[in-house]
Protein: U3 small nucleolar RNA-interacting protein 2
Amino acid sequence: GRRRREAAEEEVEETPQEKKLRLAKQYLEELRQLGESRRSRASPGDTGAQPAPCSLSRCRSQGAVLGCCCAWGRVLGGPAHLLLFLQVQPPDPARIRVLRGHQLPVTCLVISPDDRFIFSASKDGSLIKCKWEVDSGKRLCVVPGGKKGTEERHLGHASQVLCMAISSDGKYLATGDRNKLIMIWDAATCKRLHIFTGHRDAVSGLSFRKGTHQLYSASHDRCVKVWDVAENAYVETLFGHQDVITGLDSLSRECCVTAGGRDGTVRLWKIPEESQLVFSGHQGSIDCIQLINEEHMVSGADDGSVALWGLTKKKPLALARQAHGEQGTQGLQQPCWISALAALRNSDLLATGSHSGSVKLWKCGEGFRKLEHLLDIPLVGFVNSLKFSAAGDFLVAGIGQEHRLGRWWRIKEAKNSICIIPLKQKTTASSPESPGSS
Structure:
């Protein structure tokens, strides 16, 4: 009876729509397992013919909640590729491209929705924001900045840039700095359009709600703010975290998720209801967070752990401890901090970064209840930012000699740079569209 009560307390109250989504996903997972068991029993002479396409009437006859897997994909706002499992081969080190231009550690980066451009920022006092062309590696635009107190004389930031975000239509770029400012840019021309003020401490997280120009921002002042970029307007402020907020992410729903540093919580903010759900499971400071799809997210902490979450559970579905190993001498060893995360949207592929000398790729297995390590990609330095391209054919890493949030120690042999890592993929299930699109 006690175990049943604990299980009931662990469950978060579901809306009818959330229950439908959960049941549909459970049904699809059962179909996947059935298909795998049939393939394992197939004889060596089998041709490996693909199963027949989904039939709405057939799925209904088998009790599907939402009709078929295609309907499930439409509910999520994208194609039915949740059952796509990616087999990623180790990239050839000679094909990893390194873009140099920032004098100080790269702190954040984003990729344009069409995968043609990369925007990056750093702790530089002179090269605050750069725009790069992916194909050629050329630096197309540099926005000069300055030192603190010289904001009026420079177009760019006058302090360290900690975060950035780009709208899903590629029109607006937002950057946030240690001096409490959020700057809005025209992504095509790199022209500054507006400055938002209102936070009382460093701006540490930014994200545009997908399909809109609504911007969410998080700060070390422990609050989340909502802005309307198209109207240059402030909307509202949400409170709840007990320590600095270190990361933020959002997708299509009118909500966002945040990492609360040393308050030990991850929070889901429901903007219209002005309510929040609280998740806990890490032992250290939670430094980064990323949504995988509308139902799952992943977070990383300085205790070296990576946690995989379902938005209807208060505890992690899977937890990888000391994901990047340990550092230090015998008896004084500490886990390597998780400093960056990336998820290929609506797929099972994750990437994590630390200062351990490599970026690790992971697979979400067993219906998002298991984290399976796939491979390591050698990179020297602090991995301060990671992003998958929308098509999933390359991964971009922002590298620095220091951690993006501080100067605890330096890795002198590291190069402050941006690394473009090609990913060779071999799929075991086909999808009509690329896994990163939606």
